Amino acid sequence: MLSRFLAKRQVCTATLFGVAVYLLLAIVGLKFECLIATWFSVPCPLCGLTRGTMCFLSGDWRQALVYHWFSPFVIIGILVMVGRSFGSRKMQAILLRSCRWADGKKIPHVVVGLLFVYWTARVFGLAGFEF
Q: I want to staple 63 with a disulfide (CB 3.0 to 4.6 A). Which of 55, 112, 117, 120 is the partner?
């Protein structure tokens, strides 16, 4: 899963560019409406992730986790994509090997499962979550 995504450096770089543009637009104040939340009045699993990531990048870790517990994973993903896109060949090889190991241990599947559990808790209105 992860290793297939990172296998093609061009795809990784294009994704990193898209994420950078998205975050820059969020920095300048462009508001993005979640279509799932707008159409169905239910937050999607990723609602609050942009705000959480922005708070995390500005150093407000507590507020980042209030918006979305998975915002640190976005930062980790960005760092991995930067390393794959612009790092040395040795760093790229280490990243690919690490992602193959994570894939073998089914870590991405566990993270997606935890995201689903977290989203379910948010939908049912557990205290401490903001949308």
A: 55
